[in-house]
């Protein structure tokens, strides 16, 4: 065990009967790192978090927190604080009662409990709410109180289980910022489960994208966005989703991608491991990496099509463009004057493209 | 002030049509609509159906025997007398004892209180363990318990007599308390399990992270949140045990008969004149305890039943 690792998970497996929820999972989280577990529902991200918290017994493997093997320890002995989606505040207790419940169970002296509760309340600005019951709080205040309950424990590791999913959009954005500030201030290790890619991208030092009980890619948000490890990750991150062309990488004078009756030159594309590959593949390009108008005329790859649908967002305009019998999403300037039926030329640079193997769907 | 005058000036500039400033909204419904007549008519009929026997009982219990013999059961008493109530409570004879229902009342209380407390205490812990601390075979255990609720009592009467005899509790109140506790277990466990299962799992998880153990979570989280279901269980048990006749007559002896058994012995005694007024008073006295419980906790009862029914 290296000392700079806060959490280390080795060969973790969990199955309910014949159903494998987690499979041979390995994960190392550095001290003070903000790790986001991202995936669609049922991918095992919450299950993994519950295993780390000790709320689920694992079938196989080991979990280390702070260098200590905690695989079979009680949740309260693991040095963690946890925040839940439904807040999970004890309804019959006041906010102060909620915050101090765990400390009382740990048998801390009264003066210290009071001091810790007050300190946490100050950090989260919930001091005026301490004597209120959870029913008398708004959603945002409740979630603050729930974070406070994790905070008072002085834990090395914070676990968040979709803490913002029950809040409305505005409040979610506010609290997201607060959580980020909290992390900067406390610099604890945080593991944060979400299905919201914006939360993941904005908060994370590293993101682990999960699917079917396995981690598909563990990398920085930037890396995940720019160099997704496989087609699933590429589709999962980004909205609207990446445009895909099905075809083959063929040789000849320089590598080209052939799809239908079109050929895309691949000059400038950085192949995975630097070794060019040929054969059936997916060609992916993000809507924001496509250009129109004058810029398109100088692009390496140009396609002519007509606009099917326009979604003006103010900051951007999303247009669905029909090209050779298929639809592509293109992100344009917010003030772009496009209408249904307009003829447009879309262009893009192969350097911004993502190529995935047809059968394995891994990046090539 | 300036704003107010300006506003009123605006009103004068653009006069609002009369019909827009008057009261608005749909026309109020008439009280005597066809629907209301149907609803209230039905409700009044049903209430009469249930209230009339009670009325007859109260009226009869306040009459003397000569007045009853006239045969007008609906007429109010000409001369109100409480003698039948006194007799029912303190003087009526059953067998050799002539101290009325009071003996049965105190027997029933001595049966009721420990049975209710014991069965609720055990069943709530059962339900809590089954809902939140799934152990290997917990589902099987639960199934067996539920099946227990469907086995007819008659099948078990004699085996229980033998078992109680063997441990020397046959004919004692302790034995009857144990029988009541056991027979209340399936339905109460089901009730508590379903209620606790409807409490969000995350609360339970949060309490575990906070270091609370089995009993800590039970007493400090679950019980304070579950007042309605405890009230429901209490009502079910109080009425069930108070109204029990069969177990009382089988597992105790005449000195220790509960109130219901004694009531039967008073009402069904074949010696002498049938004292309808005493019988009526005795019956009302016996029914008073469950009735009081319903009145006190009616609202909580409905809430608890609904809460248990929706989920689980």
TrEMBL record, chain A:
Residues 7-237 form the ABC transporter domain. The keyword Transit peptide does not apply. PROSITE patterns: ABC_TRANSPORTER_1 (PS00211), ABC_TRANSPORTER_2 (PS50893). GO terms for cellular component: ATP-binding cassette (ABC) transporter complex, substrate-binding subunit-containing. It is a peripheral membrane protein. It comes from the Bacteria. It is found in: Cell inner membrane. GO terms for molecular function: ABC-type transporter activity; ATP binding; ATP hydrolysis activity. The keyword Aminoacyl-tRNA synthetase does not apply. Keywords: ATP-binding, Hydrolase, Nucleotide-binding, Transport. Its main location: membrane. GO terms for biological process: carbohydrate transport. SUPFAM superfamilies: MOP-like (SSF50331), P-loop containing nucleoside triphosphate hydrolases (SSF52540). InterPro entries: AAA+_ATPase, ABC_transporter-like_ATP-bd, ABC_transporter-like_CS, ABC_transpr_MalK-like, ABC_transpr_MalK/UgpC-like, Mo/tungstate-bd_C_term_dom, NA-bd_OB-fold, P-loop_NTPase. Pfam families: ABC_tran, TOBE_2. Its EC number is 3.6.3.19. Belongs to the ABC transporter superfamily. This is Maltose/maltodextrin import ATP-binding protein MalK. It comes from Roseibium album. The gene is malK_5.
From TrEMBL, chain B:
It is found in: Cell membrane. It comes from the Bacteria. Its main location: membrane. It is a multi-pass membrane protein. The chain crosses the membrane at residues 37-58, 111-129, 141-161, 167-192, 213-236, 278-296. Residues 1-28 are annotated as: Disordered. Keywords: Membrane, Transmembrane, Transmembrane helix, Transport. Pfam families: BPD_transp_1. GO terms for cellular component: plasma membrane. Residues 105-297 form the ABC transmembrane type-1 domain. GO terms for biological process: transmembrane transport. InterPro entries: MetI-like, MetI-like_sf. PANTHER family: ABC TRANSPORTER PERMEASE PROTEIN (PTHR43879), GLUCOSE IMPORT SYSTEM PERMEASE PROTEIN GLCU (PTHR43879:SF1). Belongs to the binding-protein-dependent transport system permease family. This is L-arabinose transport system permease protein AraQ. The gene is araQ_3.
